[in-house]
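It would be a great kindness if you could assist me with a short task in structural biology. Thank you for your consideration; the sequence and its tokens are set out here.
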Amino acid sequence: MNDFLYRGIIEGLNARFSVVHASEAVETGIIKHNCDPVSGLLLCRALGTGLLISPLLQDDHRFTISWQYDGPIGKVVVDVGANSDVRGLISDTNLAVHTTSMGESYGENGQISVVRSSEKMLISSSTTEAQLLELSDDLGFFFSTSEQVETELVIATNFRPNPENPVSLCQGFMIQALPGCDLEKLDRARQRMRSPEFRALLDTAPELDNHVEKLIQLLFDEGEEQQEYSIHSCPNPIFQCNCSKEKTFSALRTLNKDELIESRDKKEEIAVSCHFCSSRYTFDHNDLQRLIDEKA
């Protein structure tokens, strides 16, 4: 099944939803960072969570989500755009050395910050405690408290023992209140998102065209009136970084002239890796001379 991302509105509930299947997109990120299984699962969940909120963006806006925990997981950052392009990083790509489970990775305390920006300006920035000690739960808590918008996100992830094709599933669902939302109905729907039936379907790769419809139906009791909803396709999820050799070259301008001259004279290459995608850029003595000339 190819990756997809849908957004929509459940009319009778006055709530919006998004659903993502992003196994291929997040797998690209896991492989680029050479994550072990524990780090890979956590980064997989973070990337999927970021994609779930990308339909809230418009135009050239982006969300940068930063989770910081006091356990072995440390820091996880995801940057996602309105075009469903996502990139991210985890501070320790070899967590299996320190812990054998995701739950032990978080520690006892954490915080989450969400920055919304465009190419030209910072639009908003807010930070709150990450009290639930789980990536998607803490992002839902952030929206419910800092933004005062009731939000629930759930992510299902599965790995296979194949380093060249490690992600067998990354799938998620988000529901978020709109103005005039029936909060009692929303609360019941949020509880059903935690039900075994809902999770079993979320843990299953889509095989039929009505997969999303079935997820929505499980938000309501059999006796409840069928809720009408609209659904729209978003751009297909993709792991994509906007780094480049020229942008990385600009970062070398922070080196002082003496350091550059020393490296040039030794004919050393300077290598810089992008934190978000692990792409590696090298600069030789000719590149260094160009920087030295700029500082002359």
The chain has a mean pLDDT of 92.
